[in-house]
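Quick look at the format.
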Amino acid sequence: DGISSIAHLLDSVVLRVSVWLVAFVAGLGNVAVLIGRFLFAEPNEVHSFYIKNLSLADLLMSVYLFVIAAYDVLFRGEYILHEAKWRHSWQCNVAGFLSTLSSESSVLILTIITIDRYTSILYPLSLKRRTIASASAAMGSVWSLALLLSALPLLDIGYYGDEFYGNNGVCLPLQIHDPFGQD
């Protein structure tokens, strides 16, 4: 799959180090943002709420990266012996679900933040203010849609096949079977 080899889940040393590094930095950074946003009051409550949600979404990617990094260590030197079982395991499905949930929710939250900032710039003197209730409704919709899109492949629906998340060693829903194109 271009990422794994017979011996290792993460074949490249650079990739292994990068996964651990990004997992730690993303984890610590997003935990710090969440703690900071909860401890220190922000004058723009709605914007702070959006940032908390974005931080939570990005924290999920850190969890995904830790899962992949941990299984890389577990399978080090003998990945081929565990490859089929790993790719069809519930752990791989959960990892794929987390990566998709994180990605989908991050993009959708950034879209909501962009729309919010755009309308604030376009109508700066508008009497209609954003409320925490409308922000909560927007985030509820975002998380519901992201959960739905991420969970559908886990259901026994023929459309997604039996290895949507287990199509490769890092459990990402990459449906590329021939990375070099057609012969």
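Next, a different chain entirely:
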Amino acid sequence: MTVTGIETNDLEVLISHIRHISGFDFSGYSRPSLLRRVSRYMTKHAVDFTELLGGLSEGGSVVYDFIQELTVNYTEMFRDVDFFLRVRGTIFPYLESYPTLRIWTAGCASGEEPYSVGILLKEAGLYDRSFIYATDISNRVLNTGREGIFNMNKMRGFSENYLLSGGTHSLSDYYRVLYGKAVMIPELRKNIVFSIHDLTGDGVFNEFHLIFCRNVLIYFTLEQRRQVFLNLYKSLAIFGFLCIGKRESFKNSGIEEHFKIIDSKLNIYQKIS
């Protein structure tokens, strides 16, 4: 066994097994990232590789839970405050002229990013003519987003991010405390739609003015990233904006010539053709 608790060859067997029993294809995922996630799952559930395969073969909730755990991404509200400052100062002033705005937060996990975007739109006076589509492959984390309920300990950290990203009020204006939890207010939730979408398998489903696909592409292989980039390009209106994570690369995406660089450090681009 490797230090991750699973051999690389075993991982290929696992990928094929999951595809056969569920139809979900992990083949486009980065192997080092997938090895770490499978290892964490095995440690958490105290199973070895043989037991893992056996449990998955039984189907049902075991397969569902396995896929859910492997596809959940870390997230927080107003992650990368300099990025959200740029969105406030550069992108939103450009979008003010549009009568309606369609915004997509792809790989949104439990909803911290779409709620962050919603708050920015509120403070820019754009929320009421905006529709935010928040998607992820994991329905379990999407349910958290739909409920809009977050741990109060996390909200304290989010409050600092909010202020550093140019917040003009208090983050507490956007949630109510109920039974020790933070519940996002209905006025912030009404224009946010949470739905399942697989970036590696599903196609274009709308034409957006702004797409956030941040800290998701790092888990995919180069070939898979190129396919995702193509779908993002097709999903973006002309002169719309595409935002990817700071650690992610736009090079070799296959769509570079169709975009103008707005901020190379923060990975913000505008579609020009």
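The CA atoms of residues 14 and 204 lie 29 Å apart.

See the schema section for token definitions.
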